[in-house]
Amino acid sequence: MRIGVVEGFLSRRYLGFWEAFLRELGVEVLKAQRQTLPLPFCRPVQELLFQVEALKAKGVDYLLLPDLQGGVESEKGGGQCPWLIDLEAALLRYFPGPPPVLKVPADLSQALGRAAEIGQFLTQNPMLAHRALDRTRRLLTPPEPLRNPPGPGPVGVVAQPYLVEDPAFRKEVAEAFAPHGLTPYFADLPPEKLRAEGAKLGLGVVLPTDLELLGQSHYLDRLGRVKALAYISSYTCPPIPGLMRKAARRAHKPRVFLTLGEEWGEALAALRQAVLE
Questions:
Q1: What is the pLDDT of residues 109-127, one digit of tens each?
Q2: R_g of the chain, CA atoms, integer Å
Q3: Got the DSSP string for the chain?
Q4: pLDDT (tens digit per residue) in 190-237
Q5: What is the pTM of this model?
Q6: pLDDT digit string (tens) for 32-86?
Q7: CA 205/CA 94 separation, integer angstroms
Q8: How far apart are alpha carbons 15 and 66 in whole angstroms?
Q9: CA angle, corner 220, sides to 246 and 194, nearest 5?
């Protein structure tokens, strides 16, 4: 049995447990490199499709994908993007003949029952599935938020959670900020607290990832050490910049809107000047 797993789209939250659990079941877990494909999707989706294509070529029996929203549905905000509301459905729509999907919660607090179901399905052996779960149950604790880098001119970064939790994205942002004497500062609260922060804005948003985005803005705006805000979105994802602008209208600090893949120099220079004033 070979199961492919993908990195990105909140994989830092859930993948450690599921990789260990699948291996305890005797399943071969396969990964693929993260690269982009020249397709009209945002970069995280391009990377996802590259991985899926590579895993399909390796002949995986199943593809493990996260449920990003915990079963919550909405037509607002990120709910207008098929990739954010349901990765499996979007793959079936845009990718030719994907491997069969095993969908798992991105939120580990919801993973226990699903793990028991998948373990029994894959092994047809309840005792083996139970032992595997016992050996990996300790990994159901969510990871701690990533640490913020030290440095001058802290600028709060607001972005989709699947970007914020990607170390490669954080490195890219830090390298772009550094020549302007700026340091990115990311919201260092767990997801559930960010969602509570986002709900305080009263914008009628219900998707968990949207609430986390709003929560970043609300939290960073009132954090004393943060001097300004940078709202960063992926291109070709129209709903997210609109959601960011709604959040920014409730903020009080200097702000800038940035898009992955575009030139940031002029905007960051202006933001640096606003920080110094």
A1: 999 999 999 999 999 999 9
A2: 20
A3: -EEEE--SSSHHHHHHHHHHHHHHTTPEEE-------SSSS-HHHHHHHHHHHHHHHTT-SEEEEEETTTT---SSGGGGSHHHH-HHHHHHHHSSSPPPEEEEESSGGGHHHHHHHHHHHHHS-HHHHHHHHHHHGGGGSPPPPPPPPP-SSEEEEE--HHHHT-HHHHHHHHHHHGGGT-EEEE--S-HHHHHHHHHTT------HHHHHHHHHHHHHHT-TT--EEEEEE-TT-THHHHHHHHHHTT--S-EEEEETTS--HHHHHHHHHHHH-
A4: 999 999 999 999 999 999 999 999 999 999 999 999 999 999 998 767
A5: 0.93
A6: 988 877 777 888 899 999 999 999 999 999 999 999 999 898 888 888 899 999 9
A7: 27
A8: 9
A9: 80
The two tokens of residue 230 are 């940078």
Please tell me the distance from the alpha carbon of residue 155 to that of residue 181, in angstroms, as a whole number. Answer: 10
Helix axes 191-199 and 208-221, enclosed angle (nearest 10):
80
Instruction: Count how many Cα atoms sit within 13 Å of the Cα of residue 206 in the half-sphere of its side chain.
Output: 10
What the block records as the tokens of 259 is: 């898009």
**Both structure tokens of 201:** 């804005």
The per-residue pLDDT for 150 is 84
Distance (Å) of CA 265 to CA 37, 182, 235, 256: 26, 12, 17, 12
